[in-house]
Amino acid sequence: MDPRALAATHVLDVDGRPSRLEDQWRDRPAVVVWLRHFGCIYCREQTAELRDAKNDIGSLGARLVFVGNGGPQQAKAFRDQFAPGCTVLTDPELASYRAIGARSGLYKTLGPHTWGAALRAFRRGARQTSVQGHPFQQGGVLVVAPREGVLYSYLSASAGDHPAVDDILTALRTRQSGIAASRLANSA
Question: How far apart, in whole angstroms, are the C-alpha atoms of residue 134 and residue 159?
Fold first, then answer.
């Protein structure tokens, strides 16, 4: 992964306005979730899990950001339906996906190892709709902080493969503990 290329990557907001991705973690940490595409059953499942943890993420000083790769209208519809109150961006050119080293491919999307994940997502209420972005792109999750850089990285090996929310929260808690210890040492 190339952190400089990632920081400099331009994405679009739901109104189609460009911004640099690093703006999301310029002043506080961000949990940045790269979605496969906006119609993805697995992404909707993962979004629901993270949306349920949004207060915990916020209490640890971070913001929750989703990056898809469809059009701005699709990003807006996704935000409104699945991620209200969250930042949703889109990267139709996949530049940020390349910068994090996200995988892509037909077998990673439709192979037999994805079938169990599809059943799990379906049982949790997620539903697949039309493809709204690149159909074979895989996602990932980074926790990025202003000074420390990447605190946590998870790249999905296949469709439906995403990290446990507790792992993401642990990365944020570890950062908070380190900051508290540093303040204590500096005040002594």
Answer: 13
What is the 3-state composition of the chain as percent helix, strand, coil, each rounded to the nearest 5?
Answer: 45, 20, 35
**DSSP E strands, the chain:** 10-12, 18-20, 30-34, 63-68, 87-90, 140-145, 149-155
Q: How far apart are CA 95 and CA 166, in angstroms?
A: 28
- Overall pTM > 0.85: no
Complete domains list, the chain, with CATH: 3-187 (3.40.30.10)
Q: What is the pLDDT of residues 75-121, one digit of tens each?
A: 999 999 999 999 999 999 999 999 999 987 555 656 666 655 555 55
Beta strands across the sheet bearing 18-20:
18-20, 10-12, 87-90, 63-68, 30-34, 140-145, 149-155
